Amino acid sequence: MSKKKNIFLTIVIFIFCITGIAIYAWWPAHEIETEITYGRHQTIRHTPTFADEEIDGFNYEDFILRENNVVHKIPLQDGESIIAALNPDSEGTFINEQFIIFRNTNNVHDPVSVALVSWDYRDETYRRIWNAPIPAAVPGTISMQINDLLGDRSFCLIITGMNSQREQILTVFNKTTRENTGISFNNIVNLQVDGSITIDEVERSNSYRQGITGGQPFTITAYRRDTASDNMLDRVEIIYAYNQNRGIYEQSIINRIPGTQIEQRRVREILSGETKAFEEFINDLWYHVSPSGTIDNNQYLYFDSVNREIIFYGDNTMQVFRWRNSSPTRFGIYVSAQSISVSSLRRFLNIELESLNSLRIRVNEDIRLVINVSALWDGSYRRAGSIARNTAQQRFIHQYIDAVYDSMIGRLIFKSNGEYELSSSGNITKGRYSFFIIDGHELLELRPESRENDARTIYKLSAAGRTDKTELFDMDNISLSRVQLGMRGISDLHEGIIIMTKAH
């Protein structure tokens, strides 16, 4: 009797399992949606995807990195060209919405536009549900980010860049309603100036961070040339504040700021409108200057216009960025740069001439992935002298070397031009390499020429018996441990230590 009962229970359980699987497989997608909270007040619908599951061999962080590149979710129409894409995310959760910026190459008179693409659960496809023109026109300068600009936890889409007149632009759309019939955005900021524009972020209270109270709206500061002055470096500072009654930003304070008196012919040479002239001028090491006027030897920028790289050093962390593009501005150049180790980490630098030995720099961080970027890069920078330059150079890890190492993975040849060859079991892999520092750790990245498997690898470097004064590449033996750069910083993959022995 007991045996029959067990057989009966097994059959019942089996039927329930089959029924559950069938219901899950055929249930409409909108019935299994989950809800996640964007910020603290706004709820966005989210359909589970394979990215939400733990799958062997699947790396969610790399998936987010790929999604943050310019990959659009909707087919473009004839003549349309994608410029930028932004996938909103909340606490690392992927959301089926995307902002895209595009232009119509068939008609040069058509403005650049921004659009919101969202998943249509009924038709099971992506659709454009809102779009608007924006004044940005230079693709390499355009950036999007989302921020609580107003302090009320509302959804503000912030777009920065340059227009065709070499002016800086700032456009902000505030999401106001979301209904079954569509979506609504208000254009609360639309600035275009021949200088620079910054959002004056201030730290908000603990009660704001805990969701108890609101915060003060950020102000916006714009700088333009003082056309009433003969000095090309004189500026006008305009501060914009949010008018709650009108729902837009308006001029609040206007100040005139005298610039350094420099021989105007030299100013015209540097600010000729050609990026090469200004790039050659800033090709050097520059120290950060504190508001009190003292030089901070622990924070500096190094502009290498020849090798097209920018080195950021601060908080004992050195970050190397590829110098992607320069666009001339009224007072200098606007630079877009991309991290050589984390492709989704970008910075946009507005670099302005302050004097023949100083620069004013404002950095727009395209924060999609944060890895120890706590240094405040905005401010004035002074050109370093030869002694200071040599002192700072001691902190630089060798970027390119000329050496040969033998290891269990094969013979690794580093060339002084940034290329490497890995010879293993008769196979030769070629590519480019880079050494860099994150959070005090010296890292090596190998980027092979073949992109078939996206086989870029990153190793943490160390050497037994090394002292602070010993150069790493003076050591005969260097150990490598493979790591991964992700949203939480450096993660050890625990694949074992690789010993590299210098070939003499």
Quickly count the helices.
6
Q: Main sheet: which strands, in order across?
A: 17-18-19-20-21-22-23-24
Question: Helical residue percent?
Answer: 10-25%
Oligomer: single chain
Explained architecture:
The structure is a single chain. With 504 residues, this protein is mainly β. It has three domains: 36-257, no CATH class; 264-393, Beta Barrel (Lipocalin), CATH 2.40.128; 403-502. The protein contains six helices and 32 strands. Strand 6 (97-104) and strand 7 (112-120) form a beta hairpin. The longest helix is centred in the N-terminal third of the chain and has 25 residues, at 2-26. The model is unreliable at 23-70, 90-94 and 368-375 (pLDDT under 50).
Please outline the helices and strands.
Layout lengths: L1 H25 L7 E5 L3 E5 L13 H8 L12 E7 L2 E2 L2 E2 L2 E8 L7 E9 L4 E10 L8 E5 L7 E8 L5 E12 L2 E12 L2 E5 L5 H4 L9 E7 L9 E9 L4 E10 L6 H7 L4 H8 L2 E5 L5 E10 L4 E6 L2 E12 L3 E8 L6 E10 L2 E9 L12 E5 L2 H8 L9 E5 L2 E5 L4 E6 L2 E12 L2 E8 L8 E6 L14 E10 L2 E14 L2
Antiparallel strand pairs: 1-2, 3-6, 4-5, 6-7, 7-8, 9-10, 10-11, 11-12, 13-14, 14-15, 15-16, 17-18, 17-24, 18-19, 19-20, 20-21, 21-22, 22-23, 23-24, 25-26, 25-32, 26-27, 27-28, 28-29, 29-30, 30-31, 31-32
